[in-house]
Specification:
The protein has helices at about 5-20, 85-100; strands spanning about 50-55, 65-75, 105-115, 120-130. The protein is α+β, with helices and mostly antiparallel strands. The radius of gyration is 31 Å and the shape is elongated.
Length: about 140
Amino acid sequence: MRALPICLLAVMLSGCSVLSRSPVEPVQSTSTPPQAKPEKAKSVRTSAPVKLYTNAEDLLGKTFRDLGEVSGVSCQASNQDSPASIPTARKRLQINASKMKANAALVHSCEITSGAPGCYRQAVCLGSALQVSSQ
């Protein structure tokens, strides 16, 4: 009867020591691996930056096509987070206009609001995505 607790203690200790061992390193093959074909370099297409217009009069005399409404938002989730900023909202407006294949955006308005769902404060910029011809 005295041997049973000693045997259980020995089994538990040996079980714990097995778990604390570092994993065995994988066996490395001595044969040379087959050479993989080099992949072709993928061309990364970067779009031209979207020019921001804040005044509609700057577009007079230029040919352009309106691609639709676009917006940019900067959200301050709580009082401890970094504040919502209009420059960040304008940058996001540019990014969203770029996704619409626009090369320009006319900013209609930017404002900071409070009480938006999920945001303590929110900066919102609204505008139009434009495709301006280079004439």
